[in-house]
Amino acid sequence: MLNLLKNLCSPIAVSGNEGPVREIIEKEIAPYCSKIYTDRGGNLIAEKKGKKPSKNKVLLAAHMDEVGIIITHITDLGFLKFSCVGGIDNRLFLGKTVTICTKNGEIRGIVGLVPIHLLSADERKRTCDIDSLYIDIGAQSKAEAENLVSLGDTGVLDSEFLEFGKDKIIARALDDRCGCAVLIELLKSELEYDITAVFTVQEEIGLRGAQMAAEELNPDIAIVIDSTTACDIHNILEENTVCSLGNGPVVSFMDKGCMYNRELFSLIMKEAAQNNIKAQVKRAVAGANDSGAINKSQGGVKTAAISLPCRYLHSANCVIDKNDLTETLRLVKAVLKKACEL
Amino acid sequence: MEILDILKKLCLCFSVSGDENRFLDCVNDICSNLKTETDNIGNVIITKKAENEKRRVLLDAHYDQIGFIVTGFYDNGFVKLDSVGSVDERTLIGARVCHTHSGIVGVFSSVPPHLQKGDSKNYPELSSLAVDFGFELTDIKEKIQIGDYICLKGDYFILNKDYFCAPALDNKAGCAIMLSLINSLNLKNTSLTLLLSTQEELGLRGARAHNSTNFYDEVICIDASFAYADGCPRVSTGNLNGGAMLGVGPILSKRLKKCFEDTSKKHNIPMQYEILSSTTGTNADALTLKVQTAECALISFPIRNMHSAIEMLSLKDLDNTAKLISEYIKEADLNA
């Protein structure tokens, strides 16, 4: 699954530009599915036959898009102004490198800064707002920059996929290529019941792909596989850590977008215990995922979320524990079978 | 070896002030047919004696770079750091770093936007940050010791064909210029000494410690200065692609200023000025006090984003700076 995850993290797919990831996923799952298609919104929908029909229509979802930037203006001196696509902390940009997808392929840039030697003590501390940030691509004029980049081009903060520390992975876009990897592995495996899977677009800008897909597919039950904020870092009290790396998949009872179905929540915890899978309950009402849209579609859908604990979410250096990845796959598989029988 | 090849080699060699031993090997590799010496503080000195020595010239560039030093550990295995030199704290969260001794990689931790509670108006101070190396406390303590050095991780790369980016171009580019000069110049009358000085980022300490019984006719300091970019003040910045920045100010030699102006004109090498109303903030400040009767020039090359992992210079400026110094030295040698 590691190689698969690495491949999935490689292409840049900022919300609205999910094509490159969709292609990889389609190729991976095609031999294992009875029907695959891309809907008008760009979601990749796959149907897989199990040994028998399911009692309920169960939909599994993971999003393909990632947070990033979009070029909004080119200055007279050839610097690029940009906005964020999805929620990114403005403080992550200064002094970092970016890659921008252009009509001529990927190009690199750097988020330039005024050296601290030329700043007042106050300016050295104050967060630069997004309007004052700019990307330097080495162009010396507006015309030169316009040859290289077009307005509306999207990009990301750079980050190399790396295995590091003890069983950890550091990379960009782990949110939610991890979920995609779990869902792909699930589709590749032998299943008891027929299921539908959707790899959604535009999650990061308001769960938009999931909304379209849920309206179209009208499931009875949905299981969303995403990554969630592990804040098990220094100087944070245990009660504020939300979840921890290495403690297994995270099960949500409520977040900012969804009140999760209690029956499914209990079922997941029971399955984890019975199958000896380490799982943790998300210890905060924070964040949201595709559940927020699916749950509210078509007269309501019973929804559950099983997430990968992930540090530094929405930064270029997300960190996960490999063991959580395999445990998540095990848990989703066990839960899926029971959900089909409900 | 071309300057750019030397620079690439130097960029791969971490040399945080006080953590320089691997730099000497790198210099020996670049100047394999010259003898290198070191002094007690860690300066690296290379001399190429002229057959018929009539004058001595000292070229100086510092080879240390800003970075971090390990001061402790948190219970969860994260590593606490302090800065070595003036680090730009605004660039730290979400930045990857490297343990210089073992090469293992970590990242400055951050709180994701989903969980922030209105605390994002300022950049966090280094004292509130820590590095996640992905290990628990007992494991990390086997790999990293208190007092070890940490560097911002950044590979070199080229933007738009002509612009070279890497951490610590301040002042590895200066070192690259000097090393390429000493390899290529064969002077009859001038003995050339390179002072690859240490701990400049901590207050010109290497230059201050340089043995002052040495006598030089001229000292030429080479360092990085500011290139204009969006948001920078126009005054106190030079232009990228404008060529070397010739320092002009009370502590610098007026005769040498004229010499470099003449060389620039004669050989059509672009050059710009850097006006320094008092001291220079470079090793020139220390060496003018140290080296008896020497006249001192300060030649800088403009870079963007100083003291970040994405310092950037123009390859044209790099070549033109080397050319200006080289042509001047050759001419002065002929006229000696």
Q: Key terms for this structure?
A:
heterodimer, A: alpha+beta, 8-stranded mixed beta sheet, globular, B: 336 residues, alpha+beta, 11-stranded mixed beta sheet, 8 helices, 26% helix
Describe, in plain words, how this protein is organized in 3D.
The complex is a heterodimer of chains A (342) and B (336). With 342 residues, chain A is an alpha+beta fold. Chain A has eight helices and 17 strands. In chain A, the strands form three sheets. An eight-stranded mixed β-sheet of chain A has the order 1-2-12-3-13-16-14-15, with helices on both faces. In chain A, helix 4 crosses helix 8 (322-341) and helix 6 packs across helix 8 (322-341). The radius of gyration of chain A is 21 Å and the shape is globular. The two termini of chain A are 29 Å apart. The relative contact order of chain A is 0.19. Chain B is built from eight helices and 17 strands. Chain B has helices spanning 3-11, 21-30, 137-143, 169-184, 205-209, 254-267, 283-290, 315-334; strands spanning 36-38, 44-48, 55-62, 67-73, 79-84, 96-99, 105-108, 131-132, 149-152, 157-159, 163-166, 190-197, 218-226, 244-248, 271-275, 295-304, 311-314. In chain B, strands 1, 2, 3, 10, 11, 12, 13, 14, 15, 16 and 17 form an eleven-stranded mixed β-sheet that branches. In chain B, helix 1 (3-11) packs across helix 4, helix 4 (169-184) crosses helix 8 and helix 6 packs across helix 8 (315-334). Chain B is globular, with a radius of gyration of 21 Å. At the A-B interface, strand 7 of A face strand 7 of B.
